[in-house]
Write a structure and sequence with these properties.
The protein is mainly alpha-helical. The structure holds magnesium ion. Magnesium ion binds next to helix 2 and helix 3.
Length: 115
């Protein structure tokens, strides 16, 4: 039987991002370096929503928009390298679980090399 795998939700989002990009002929600007810079700029814009405010004073509508911009760039960068987003995030969680064992890290803000 030759069954076609259904795209994951993230794969569908990446397809939508690439459609948006390609309709505007922007792929020529979206090399890995520029997308990585864009990711950092958008993360900065996300941070800006909190600047000079208590966390609860930040505008959730603006946070939502900047977070979407962060995901846009992050998903494009993952796609550029052929990374499956779910796999790389779960792989990193596994690595972090080894670096931060619950028995040592629970309730602690220390970095793994200080536990
Ligand atoms: Mg933005």
């Amino acid at each position: 039987m030759n069954r076609k795998k259904e795209p994951t939700e993230i794969e569908g989002i990446i397809a939508d991002i690439k459609k948006f990009r390609d309709e505007r002929d922007w792929a020529k600007f979206h090399d890995a370096k520029n997308v990585a810079i864009c990711l950092n700029v958008e993360a900065g814009e996300l941070l800006e929503t909190f600047l000079w405010k208590a966390a609860e004073e930040a505008d959730a509508v603006k946070i939502r928009e900047e977070l979407a911009d962060v995901f846009y760039s992050a998903f494009l960068l993952a796609d550029h390298y052929g990374f499956d987003v779910g796999t790389i995030v779960r792989d990193k969680l596994e690595k972090n679980a080894l670096k931060y064992p619950v028995a040592k890290a629970k309730g602690s803000r220390k970095k793994y090399d200080e536990l």
